[in-house]
Design a protein that fits this description.
- The chain has about 675 residues and is of the alpha/beta class.
- About 55% of the residues are buried.
- The N terminus is likely disordered.
Length: about 675
């Protein structure tokens, strides 16, 4: 067993193009995480009745801490997952860190971004998490390399686990001690794989965790983050060797990651099949499959997504299809086919023109607007530091001066670099998000355009055929209270003028000219991860709709890698502007698509207080599938980007199970009881 104390050793070289004396892959410390509280990674509740991550962990975008597990959406989650993916969550066990798995925080050496030109970046000490199944027969089924999604707080990383008596000191860096109690989310996700007998390696990334006093090279720099994952393999091999699994035993490797991490996963697959293949060979790992989850693979397309004034056709009805007679304030968004004999069997569909308005395939314009300042600010802060020497003139060239220079946070005014660099005060994740979002709302660009996501815009939401039921729902949900929803009108009928946002384009705080700037175009193309030829299987996991990461990323990556063609869009979706230089490789590239209503959070459309009225949470959000409606007009809000963690990892796990059992790479799981 590896000691819970600090262990130092020299590991074999990583196989990355090494600089003199850099010794990448050297392990600085391995610390077993000992728990003094809850000793179980609760993926699901004890009866398998709900997604504990959604219901009990605010970090996953849930607003429903401690909700009753008997709600209809929880039961629908279980049923949908069984029907769509052949996964009965009751076959999962809660994973105990005292007997089922062992968790380790590690620190190790890896190259920094610009390591070939900046002496401070030649070698960095960073950190990560290793979770190993405690198998009595000294066998594991394989290794999963997991790249985590975007977090702003420096200690919200895999290796900072809550309730451990040995939580590393670098987890205690936040100025107001708000993020220093550890973070269980990624340990939970790792346990999904560990519960099936996989060892999991999860890097914290450069500029995060132990490397907190460095700028995180964000999505524009996928290669250096992918390499940080590879350089954890020597530590993994040492831990396995201590458990009796000899370092020369060949093990299958699977790679995955979510959101930010999905881009790194795809880049890691390219490196593993090319110039970094030696590290896999040195550590006796054989890549079998890569399954990236909802990532930003096409950065220029993602930048255009930020610049677009997005309409979801539901909460933001700001445009209409060409040639359409649709009028936002006069036409019906939703049409209900009321079953008078049995209202619970009523169904709805969305107007086809409304669907066509949503040409970026988002769920909710408000969610998109809330994330644009933060994510755009993050990638620009990283890019301006590593590619533009952090020059004030470069900041002004790229952004509205107020946006980068006058961020109000915790009673201070700081600039964008200070917000993300970690050399000064480390702020809480939620403070970073809020400060950038609020700052974006205080400004106008040089054309006088403001970033206004709160002002009401005319639209019509058709609630149903029974005006009494509609009025009753409004009253109970608080929407008829002018103090809460002052813009709601026309309560006597079934049409309600409401909505949010007259502009959510990043043009208000980012200069649109950078879109055609040669330096930025080069940066965006260099940071994109799809334009290469794979000889090993790749299964993309994607949602139909996403308000944070443009679904165009998936369509372009999938089209280019599978068919060797640029995605040209269709009547309801924009086309990619990015190039495709691949040859087609149809047999190697697949996808698993998750319906946005596969899981739902605790919100009910227009009415958060009426979750218990949802009778069928498996509805398709935008028109094709009927929904059962209780009391005339209740529907479920579809899940969005931040609600996808659990299911997408289960689908990735299914991909790995199918690969190991020689089945199809995507689609339904094999029988997990065998």
């Amino acid at each position: 067993m590896v000691s819970s104390g600090t262990l130092s050793l020299i590991a074999c070289n990583s196989g990355h193009e090494s600089l003199p004396n850099a010794n990448y892959g050297k392990v600085i410390s391995i610390k077993q995480q000992n728990y003094n509280g809850n000793k179980t990674f609760n993926i699901f509740d004890k009866n398998g009745e709900s997604w504990s991550l959604f219901e009990k962990t605010l970090d996953l975008g849930s607003f429903a801490s401690g909700l009753d597990t008997t709600y209809a959406y929880a039961k629908s989650n279980i049923k949908n997952t069984k029907d769509d993916f052949n996964v009965d969550i009751k076959t999962f066990k809660n994973v105990s860190v005292s007997k089922d798995v062992e968790a380790y925080s590690i620190e190790y050496k890896t190259p920094g971004q610009n390591h070939d030109t900046d002496p401070m970046q030649i070698v960095r000490t960073t950190s990560g998490l290793v979770i190993v199944p405690d198998t009595p027969d000294k066998k594991i089924r394989g290794v999963v390399l997991y790249f985590h999604p975007t977090e702003f707080g420096k200690s919200l990383v895999p290796s900072c686990i809550n309730k451990s008596t040995t939580t590393p000191e670098y987890c205690n860096i936040t100025a107001d001690k708000g993020d220093n109690k550890g973070f269980n989310t990624f340990a939970y996700l790792a346990s999904i794989y560990a519960s099936r007998g996989f060892a999991v390696v999860a890097p914290d990334y450069l500029g995060m965790g132990a490397d907190w006093n460095n700028v995180h090279p964000y999505v524009a720099y996928p290669e250096i983050n992918a390499i940080s994952g590879f350089n954890m393999f020597p530590a993994l091999r040492h831990i396995l060797n201590e458990k009796g699994i000899v370092s020369t035993e060949n093990l299958p490797l699977m790679i995955t990651g979510f959101s930010e991490g999905a881009g790194y996963a795809l880049k890691a697959s390219e490196l593993a099949q090319g110039k970094s293949a030696k590290i896999l060979k040195d550590n006796h790992l054989e890549l079998k499959i890569t399954s990236p989850q909802e990532g930003a693979y096409s950065l220029q397309d993602q930048m255009d997504f930020a610049f677009a004034d997005l309409s979801d056709g539901m909460f933001n009805c700001a445009n209409k299809p060409k040639g359409s007679s649709f009028v936002c304030s006069e036409s019906k968004m939703i049409e209900v086919e009321l079953n008078k004999e049995n209202p619970s069997l009523s169904s709805f569909k969305m107007n086809e023109d409304v669907i066509k308005m949503n040409n970026w395939n988002i769920v909710n314009a408000m969610i998109a607007a809330g994330n644009k300042p933060t994510l755009t600010g993050y990638v620009l802060a990283s890019s301006l530091y590593y590619d533009f020497n952090n020059l004030s003139s470069a900041y002004d060239f790229v952004m509205n001066h107020q946006f980068w220079s006058s961020i109000q946070i915790k009673g201070q005014v700081i600039n964008l670099f200070n917000l993300f660099n970690g050399n000064g005060i480390n702020y809480k994740d939620e403070n970073i998000y809020t400060s950038l979002h609020e700052n974006s709302l205080r400004m106008k660009n040089i054309e006088g355009i403001s970033y206004n996501v709160n002002e009401s815009h005319n639209m019509t939401f058709y609630l149903g055929g029974d005006t009494r039921g509609a009025a009753s729902m409004l009253k109970r949900s608080g929407m008829s209270n002018p103090a809460i929803f002052p813009k709601v009108a026309n309560l006597k009928g079934v049409n309600i003028n409401m909505g949010y946002g007259v502009n959510n384009s990043a043009k208000a705080f980012v200069n649109y000219g950078i879109r055609t700037s040669p330096q930025f175009k080069h940066l965006m193309q260099k940071g994109s991860t799809y334009n290469w030829h794979t000889i090993l299987p790749i299964n993309f996991i994607n949602m139909k709709y996403d308000s944070v990461v443009a679904t165009l990323n998936f369509h372009q990556a999938y089209s280019c890698m599978k068919y060797g063609k640029q995605f040209v869009g269709d009547e309801a979706m924009v086309s990619s502007v990015m190039p495709c230089n691949n040859i087609k490789n149809i047999s190697m590239v697949e996808s698993s698509t998750i319906d946005n209503a596969q899981l739902t959070n605790e919100l009910v459309l227009l009415s958060p207080g009426l979750l218990d009225k949802v009778k069928n949470a498996s509805s398709y959000w935008a028109s094709t599938k009927a929904i059962s409606i209780a009391d005339n007009a209740y529907t479920a809000v579809p899940m969005d980007h931040n609600n996808m963690f659990v299911l997408s990892n289960i689908v990735a796990m299914c991909t790995f199970e199918n690969m190991l059992k020689g089945g199809k790479n995507s689609g339904k799981c094999p029988d997990l009881t065998k």
